[in-house]
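Lab notebook, page 48
Experiment: co-folding of the full assembly
Goal: obtain a model of how the components sit together before planning crosslinking
Operator: M.T.
Materials (sequences as entered):
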Amino acid sequence: QKEVEQNSGPLSVPEGAIASLNCTYSDRVSQSFFWYRQYSGKSPELIMSIYSNGDKEDGRFTAQLNKASQYVSLLIRDSQPSDSATYLCAGSTGTASKLTFGTGTRLQVTL
Amino acid sequence: DVKVTQSSRYLVKRTGEKVFLECVQDMDHENMFWYRQDPGLGLRLIYFSYDVKMKEKGDIPEGYSVSREKKERFSLILESASTNQTSMYLCATRAGGGSYNEQFFGPGTRLTVL
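Observation: model returned without errors.
Model output:
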C-alpha cells in the first residue's frame, strides 16, 4: 500500500456543485495532513491543513479527517471553474521534517 | 508570508553539462527540499536538508547532489545532465520543530536537457 493514495481522476463536477476529494493513508503517515492546489504548469499552493479528527472549515473549503478509517477529504462548496486544478494530499511521517504526497486528483469544474 | 524563490523559471541545457538550480527562502526555515515532478509520477523527493551542511537522500537521489552552505540557500546540482532529467524541479521549505508545520513551495524551474 502506498503511504498516501488518491484517485487520479479526473473528477468532473458542474459549476456550483460540491466537489469531494478523498485521500487514504497508511499507518506510517499519522500526524498531520495538508491539501495543496496545483494549477497546470505552476507549483503547489497550500490551501488547508488538518491535525485532529473532525472537520475544519475555511471559506468554501472543508477538510475532514477520520483517523480510525485513515482517510482525509477535501470538500469544495459552490465549485467554480477557477477551482479546476490538481489537488495534492500530503501527510507527515515519523520523520517530522518531510511530507509524503499523493499523486493528486485532477478536478474539472464544468460550466 | 513565506517567500521561496528559485533562480530560473525555465532552463535549457545540453547533455553532459553541469547544472545548478538555486533556491532561496526568507523565513529562517530549518528544512529545505528538492523535488521533481513528472506527468503521471507525482512529486518525487530528490534530497532534503534539515540544517546547514546537513543533507539526506530522498527517493531518487541518483544523478543529483546538493549543497547547503547557508541556512537560506539550498542548491541542487546535476553533475552531468542527461535527457531523462528533463523535468519540473520544485524547491520547498518547512519550519522545523514539529509535524504540524506547513510546507511551502517555490515557483519551480522547468528544465529541458537536449
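Interpretation: Chain B has a mean pLDDT of 94.
Next step: discuss with group before ordering constructs.
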